[in-house]
Amino acid sequence: xxxWLVRMLTGAAxxxxxxxxxxxxxxxxxxxxxxxxxxEPLVSTLQAAGARKDLAIASALLPPLIGLVYAAxxxxxxxxxxxxxxxxxxxxxxxxxxxxxAQLDDYLAVVMGVQLSLAEQVASLELDLRGAARAERLxxxxxxxxxxxxxxxxxxxxxxxxxxxxxxxxxRALSLLPNNQFELGWLMYHRxxxxxxxxxxxxxxxxxxxxxxxxxxxxxxxxxxxxxLGVLTGVAGLVPYLGPLLAMIAPILMxxxxxxxxxxxxxxxxxxxxxxxxxxxxxxxxxxxxxSVNLHPAVAMLAVVIAGHVGGITGMVLVIPLLGMLRxxxxxxxRGLQSSG
Amino acid sequence: xxxxxxxxxxNPFRRKDPAAATRDAWRNTPLLKDIPASVCHKLVERTHxxxxxxxxxxxxxxxxxxxxxxxxxxxxxxxxxxHRIAELGPGDFFGEAALLQDAPRSASAIAVEQATVSFLVRxxxxxxxxxxxxxxxxxxxxxxxxxxxxxxxxxxxxxxxE
Lengths: 341, 162
Fold this sequence. Notes:
The structure holds 2 protein chains of 2 kinds. Chain A contains 10 helices and no strands. By secondary structure, chain A is mainly α. The longest helix of chain A is centred in the N-terminal third of the chain and has 59 residues, at about 55-110. Chain A is globular. Chain A starts with a helix and ends with a helix. In chain B, the strands form 2 sheets. Chain B has a 4-stranded antiparallel sheet with strand order 1-8-3-6. Chain B has a 4-stranded antiparallel sheet with strand order 2-7-4-5, with no helix packed on it. The longest helix of chain B is centred in the last third of the chain and has 23 residues, at about 135-155. The relative contact order of chain B is 0.19. Helices cover about 35% and strands about 25% of the residues of chain B. Chain B is of the alpha+beta class. Classes of the chains: A mainly alpha, B alpha+beta. The interface of A and B includes residues 44 and 171 of A.
């Protein structure tokens, strides 16, 4: 086996092993990388203006960290207030789904003469949503919350060290490359980073813009918790191709759990999402994300579906930049190998 | 105190600075001409020292280049299409065109004897210029002067280093 192939396979194995070891703190790692990508230009600007490195990092890091702590406190408070009501709401949601499906059955029977008996079929599944909120299950989920809090607590120090020391870690890692791959390694690193940074920064801005537009829309049409629904829509919008469908789930569930399925409100929700995603597709994506990964749409769609099966929403969001990264690495390696004979 | 006595007293207690030779080599390049010593030191901290065996290529003609280099020790031959264009020694600076663009190397560089070479990577120079725009402007002006001088020599039919 050729030496370069052995090295690449070894590198991939090491990356996988590190990924496996970091599994318990993947949320912290992801947030730190996002903080780094978003704040590094600001730190550079502050340094260029004459600020010391530590001061520049502290000035850039403090406002988003305060925001993160505030959001976490607000989330904990809301969850504590909402928990007693959760079981009742879930029961209401189950009832709402049954009633909506019964209405749909009647409608289909009258208009199309079709008897699907959707309500009976769903009832036969014996879904017990209230059971999901029982004390023992909630207790089991506290370990998940503890892990989440641990991850959030790790974000400030990790982001600090990443902003301060990333470059020296990178230089040391790249200096381990053999002489004949030293320049190729740097070139590959630069191309991957440039694309990945542009893509991830674009994703964050895309989520913020989509969240803002849809939150305002949901507030105007009078849906409860418009900010939460806007944030969920922004996150769903990060999933390529399937985003608009995923974005419909939360507002529809909220509507079903509340007043029931109303065609007028449904149309308003669709309109809000159409405006949000229309702006997203017409303005945000062409300006922020166009050409940043250059994958064929069929490959991207297939990858999104497979990644969703393997890694859930996170996998769906990350699969496109990861594929783009792999493409750049393979192209640069291939060109490098060709030019070096 | 005679010079031998001074040597006896000073040198056993003086720490050797392995980076000093690299710093001096870079400070004497046309790239860092008239740049303050403190700024030079910060930039040289980002360079990469690499060791080459006799006959080992530093880079080959046609490969994508991303760095300029200064020879710290040893000798390096510059070759194009199997013709030796130049032989460079300690303190010589070459490959500076790669600090500006992604173009392929116009010649190969090969170690004629065991050599130590310090590389400055374009992306690190760009980061440095972003962090220190004042010094960065002077460095980039020096680089432009250097490339114009080489172009002028090339137009007059003189041999280039690379």
